[in-house]
User: What shape does this take?
Amino acid sequence: MSTTFFVTGTDTEVGKTAVSCALLHAARARGLTTAAVKPVAAGCDADGHNEDALALQAAMTLELPYAQVNPVALQPAIAPHIAAAQAGRSLSADRLAGLCRGVMHSGADLVLVEGAGGWRVPLGPRETLADVAVGLGVDVILVVAMRLGCINHALLTAEAIRADGLRLAGWVANQPGAAMACHAENLDTLQRLLPAPLLGELPFIAPFDAQTASQYIDLPKLFSM
Assistant: This one.
């Protein structure tokens, strides 16, 4: 089976897809085959395609159909459980994990499973996306948006990951917009307090280019643990 990581974030719009694509390009540059899956995505176009899932599909080396990269595509750009309810559908962590396993058995050296929003995004009344990661039993990569509040959000997410019995394999500091005040001091605090290696610092890149972003990723740190 492939080496698989679940990619989560400190919040929504923190750059999970940007970091995932950068990781995929960094792995490609080292001769690894890659695949990715976004099991559930809200905010799809009329054709049922999600911008983030399309970016993952373009960044990975394996050629998988869109329906396998993003098996549950919901049109409204709202919380997945609300979007699913509006569409008359229900979301199951066990089913989503099963869909991810299909990609995990695709033969790629590295597989990324990208979540939606943060760690505790609900799937329904009793389950969250964290239950998908737990069901898969894979290590987690945390994307931290470097903005005001990032320390609290990152530490709480790391605590939740540990409480769910999973290992935080590494984290990436992503700059989703203008540089925050006291960036260096915040980064230093996160490095001291987060129980995992910093895999890279992504600056704000506009327009975003995954290959350029991959140059800021220290991929060997991810596999040296």
Residues 170 and 196 are 5 Å apart (CA to CA).
